[in-house]
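Record 1 of the preview.
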Amino acid sequence: MPTNDKPINGQHRPNSILDLPELPPAIEDKPRLARLRTAWKESWEEGGFLYQRWEELLKARHAGWHEIANWIKATGLLVGISLIVMMVDTAGDITSAALKGLSTVPDSPTGDGNGLWGTVDHPIRVFFAQQAAHLTVAPAALYAFWQLAGLLGLIGGFFGNAGARITWVLFGCGSLAMIWSASPAGGRAAATGIAALMWALASIFALRGLTLRPIVHNHPPQFQPQFNPALHLHATLPGPAPAGDDFDDEDDNIHPLQR
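->
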């Protein structure tokens, strides 16, 4: 079979694809773990991605809100919102469990009303027993809720919480009204008076630091600059005449006075 072996531009032209020059072998890729290790080291070098993020974290401790990096602000807001959602969800579960527990409290006896504390506690139990007959809740649940409200008002008021102090005031007024309503007619005034004294003594702790006197803040007067108007006149006086100068010889400088 004839072949066409004529050179082209001084070079031999191959007749088939088998005569093509062999390509150099491909460079084998580095293992993936080695590439990841190299990228990790480069990111921590000066100017790398992780190095810059770490510098921004260090600067955020002493920088203001407007100087903090945006990704730190976004992360902080996301974490804060997540914590708030978790706390609200947990508080809802705790409140629901507490209300269910109060609704299933077994009935307790109203007591015999003996003693100083029985004089105050027995009318409240009787009042709850009378009112629970017209409600779908047990008297013990109402009594437990009344105790819980008083305890929260006492503790919260001691730490200066305004809502807890309002709760404590309403708790005391409601207790006095219940004692007055459920106490025997002959000892109603005495039972209500003893309850009022007990509530007043407990208010020493619940309303600690509360005063009805207006708070007056005496601040020293601020410095006010004084303004003293003054009028300054600038007059230019002629200088002394030079020695030996005779004005009589200069007729041009003499002008008659005109009226």
